[in-house]
Specification:
By secondary structure, the protein is an alpha+beta fold. It has 1 helix and 4 strands, in the order αββββ. The termini are far apart.
Amino acid sequence: MFGDKREQARDFLVVKEGLDVKEFIRKSGDWYYFKVSSTWNGTHTVKVKEGFFGWVKETVN
């Protein structure tokens, strides 16, 4: 609610999902696109938006 939504989305990916955020790509509507990496999936792109019950993450590719 307070602060930058992009930073909140980044914190969600790092703290809740355990991903290493490589870079912020862009914002499109309510979605924030990040390039992330993990041990199991390697480097991939995810999109994140704030939903009714918290943050929602979807893998793009």
